[in-house]
Structure formats: structure tokens, C-alpha cells
Amino acid sequence: MTSRKTVLVLGGSSDIGRAAARAFARRGYDVALAGRDVAALEPDAADLRARYSVDVGVHRFDVLDTASFEGFVGSLPALPDVVISIVGLLGMQESAQSDLAHATTIMRSNYEGPSLILGLFAEKFLGRGSGTIVGVSSVAGDRGRASNYVYGSAKAGFSAFLSGLRARASRGGVHVVTVKPGFVRTKMTEGMKLIGPLTVEAPVVGDAILAAVENKTDVVYVSGKWRLVMLIIKTLPEAVFKKLKF
Amino acid sequence: MTLVSGWGRFPVVDTDLLRPRSFEAVGDAVADVTGSVARGNGRAYGDAAIGAARTVAMTGFDRVRSFDPATGRIRLEAGVLLADLIDTFGSRGFLPFVVPGTRFVSVGGAIASDVHGKNHHCEGGFGRYVDSIQLATGEGQTIKVSREQNSDAFFATVGGMGLTGVILEATMRLRRVETGWIRERVIAASDLDAAMRALDAGDTATYSVAWIDCAARGRDLGRSLIYLGEHAGKDELADGADAFPVGKNPGLSVPIDLPSMTLNRYSIRAFNELYYRMGARRAGGSHVVSLYPYFFPLDSIADWNRIYGKRGFLQHQCVIPEDGARAALGEILDRVARRGDASFLAVLKKLGQGDGLLSFPLPGYTLALDFPVKGDILNFLEEIDRLVVAAGGRLYLAKDARQSRATFEAGYPALRRFNAIRKSLDPKGNIRSKLSQRLFDEV
Fold first, then answer.
1. Complex ipTM value
2. Is residue B41 part of a domain?
């Protein structure tokens, strides 16, 4: 009966996921929140209903359980208009250097799972002839750095996947957005030394995602400063770059 | 450890700053150490929201639990900011009953300070519209306090500066409004007597407040601009105006600490002269303004606290009972004007009775003044405090960073009762802030 649009947020209990859900609900979207722990999503669902009087559903989704993806998509009450993947795992670079299981989890959480689930939605969206796919990747994927290349390489793969998907899907009426937030003050980055002027709060990222969907932006650096920073980092000659410790 | 300060940036204190992610974790954080207090958005000016040992940051708890548009009743987590409430529910026709001079305060902080707004003289403080509170006590237990249940703890928590426990959640009422606009009337008062008369005449207005020129001396002493306000109806708006204006994020900001000499007696006097004349020109008629500039004039400048330089500033906010207020305010203003370094941010306003045991308001006049931290300011404010105490007045704990125990104890006769309730809730004394160490705790 409702003609409202629906947004599906994968990783709905993350700080950026909550912020994105609020931004879309404020705009009048109904919301589907998905995450590993359904009970943890309920307070956020109640928050969205109380604030914006929109319909909100919660769904179980585990990014490592790729075998469940087809069933997950089929179990949704309706195919959403927008799907946003905020799923990811920073992990611990030092452990990942020798602990193959940990490295695998980082790679699967940031590349394999998000790419496969968004690819699946892309097929459904192309079949329908409409829809928007948003992948939250990272500036860490722009160039592998000594301090976080396991995470960064997975994000690089995810960014490349989104780039190719965008080129293909754009011909079928489906838009793909790549978001590179830079430093965001969240649970994931708690305790990290973040550089103040390059750091934003989660709601800024949520608003940027909504704006990118509405304006059909392709690649979003949430803070414009990051575009410049990463341009410099990307153009440093390898001989210089390998001497840097960051 | 993390360096933390209040909005006045004085004092700066090293504290164990925790950011719990669940209410259980909040309980654990306060129960397993002596000396914690909750912190909302850090807008208390002094040392109220800094733990003696540990500071528990609450802004992550920003969910609305439920809202009933039929009654305006809302249940929410303590870290929700009033700015968020106004932005989210304003357009649905609901606003908080009470807003202080900044919207960037949390609900928990607003309860703990029992903040007042420009309507305190007729509608009371923030706590009056709070029905119940979920509190994590110093023992780590969660209890519900309301006027009916644990009412002693309720009235100790409203205005209790976070010392009865951590406010986790609250249920409160929002005001139904037709628009987000205020019909404002400006009155120019040429001296203190005229200003106090204008505020008395404004008792029937829902909102009233005076900006007072604390650089003016002699026969201009106490000259003011009085701003009266009423919620505007839809029929009062200009054609095509949105019923609810959009609150912009601060457009201006103070990006660096200004040299502390930026504000001196000459620049302040020149500014005030200009401000008074421009305001006086607008006086008389009434016009409709957005709620944002009416209630939160300083929110449009981000980080305005940096204007006072790196050493920070002190806000001195006192309330003087009506009898004898004229004489005491005259004496205070005269001393301040002679000194010459109080800022242009001086506010005079009438207050009514406070609700909490330690709520700041009492029927009388409140005067708020900002001073940069330098020179002999601490001694000067001690002298002002003596005038306040002699007149039966007291200082606002949410603004305070320096008053003495003697000043505090003289001003808050319910302190003994408050301490007894605090002790029963927290026998081990786990909840302690820098402010409580300075003014409350046994040494």
C-alpha cells in the first residue's frame, strides 16, 4: 500500500550504518536494517520509527556466510530501492601478517562478502531496471600501506569490483556509488590516533551517502581533503613510498 | 588518560575517559572504581562533567525509544542532544518545553543541571517536564526514579550535577507548537532600574531575557535590551515561509585560540555601544524571528569559547532574590564596569522557583558574565561572591569552576538533605566529579 522507497542497510548497527539509516528515514524512506545480531538492531529500529514514523524491519545477515546470501535476498519482503553495504572489519594488521585465519577473515569481510552480496542485488536491480547500490569502501584501498595493507588490499578489491559493476550496471538503469569515508569517529576507530582536520563524525558520512544516491555521484570522498591527500599518496613514486612508515 | 575540560576550557584535567557501548557497561564503569561521573556534550563550563578519576562519555547513547504524538511524551537515551530533538521533532510540531542558551546540550546534562530557559519565570526548568529517569547508581544498579517512585532520588537527580548516578534514559514531555517561529518584541532600557522594570513587566510574556551592557557606567549603568517572545502561530508568518525553519549548522567558527588581548575594555565598549544602539533602533515594534537566533544566538558561531584565548574563561552566573536584588546587582555591575574586562555576553533574566534540591533557580534575578582567565580574576570574583551571598543569592553549578565551599554552602540550604540521599544511593561514594571534590565531598 505504501509507495515509499526502501533502503536496505547491511551492517545496520555500525555507527555509519545507523547514521545512514537516519539520513534516509529522515528523507521518508522505509528502512530494512540487517546485521549479524538482530537483537542489537531492535533499539535502532525503534529509534527510526519514533523519530520519523517510517516502517522499519530487521533482518539477520552474516557477511561471512556467503552460502546464505541467495536465501537472504529472497527472504526480504520486497526488493529495496537502495542497498548500502557498510560491512567491514579493520582487524589487526600485525596479527594478520602471520595469522592466516585472521587475514582471511579481514579479506572476506571487506572484499568477498560485500562484493558478492552487492553483485547479487545488482542482478536483481538490473532485472527490474532500477536501483542504487552503495558500497562503503575506504581510502585505505587507494594504495597499500605498510600499516594496514591486508585491510587496504581487500578494500582495493572491493573498490575495483564496484567500479566495474558501475560501468556495467549504468547501462541497465542501476547506479553504483563508492564511498571512501576517510577517518570517521566510530567504534571501529576508537582508540586510534585520528588527525583532527581529516576526521568526520558518522552523521556526516550518513548525509554524504544520501546526497550521493540522490545526486547519482559515482565516487565520494566524504571530506574533499581526502581526495587531495590520496592523490598525493597515489602519485608518490614507489621508491619514496616504500620508505614511509605510515 | 585524556585531557578534558568544560566549555570554559578551565580547568583542564587528565581523566580516564570511557565510552561505554551498553548500559551494562555504564554500570560496570562506575561500580568498579571510586570517582566517576557522566559527561554529556561537555557544555558545562567548569569541572562538573569531569570525573575525579574516570569520566563516562554518554553521547553515544542517542536513541529515541518511543514517541507518542498524541501526548508529546518521549522516552529517550540520555545522550540525545536538544539540537537533535529540535531538528527531528520540530517539523512534527514539537519542541522541548525548556531550552538553555545553547541547543548543543544532552538530555542527561539538561536534567543534571536542571537547565533553565527564557521562560523559567513562568514555566519552570527542564526537570519540570521530566516524568521519570533511569539511573545507574554508584553500585552499578539501574533504578527508576520519578515523582511517585523513589521521589527523593528524583528530586536529588534533577539539578544534582550527575552526583546521584548516571542518567541513562528519561521520559519527558514535549511542547506542541504550531510553528518554529517566535514573535519577538525588543525593549530598550536606558539603565538598570528601567531594565528591571521592563523584566517585571515581561513576567506575563512566555519568554523574556535581557542583554545587559556591562561596560556602561554612571547613569548608563545597567542599560539593556530586553527581548520578549511568544510562539508565533501560522497566521503570523510571512506568505510562503515554512512553518518550521531549518536550523543551520554553525556558519562561522573560531578556528584558533585568539590572542587573549582581542577582548579588551576598548573593543568591548565599542562593540557594546554599537550593539545597544542597533538594538534600540529596533525597539518598540514586534517581529517574527526563527527560534534558532532567538533561543541560541551564540550557536551560530562554532567554538566561540576560543575567543577568550588559550587560558580559557570563567562564567559567573548568580541569582539574587528579589528583595535586595536592585542594590546587589547595581553594586556588582558597577564593580564589573570599573574593571572593564567582562565580555559582551552578559545576560540578565528573572527566574522562578527551582524544582530539584540543588536546582539553581530561585525567585529573583540572574546575572551571567564572562571573564577571561587572567590577572587577579579569581580574587575579583571572590569579592563578587561575597555580595551575592550577603544578598541571599547563589551561583550556578553548571557554570562554576571556582567558587568556594563557603559560598556554595551558604547558597544551597538543601545541601545536607541532598548529601544524605546521595549517600543512601551510593554508600561507597563511587560517584565523584572534580566539582564534587571541590565543593561536596568530605576531605
1. 0.90
2. no
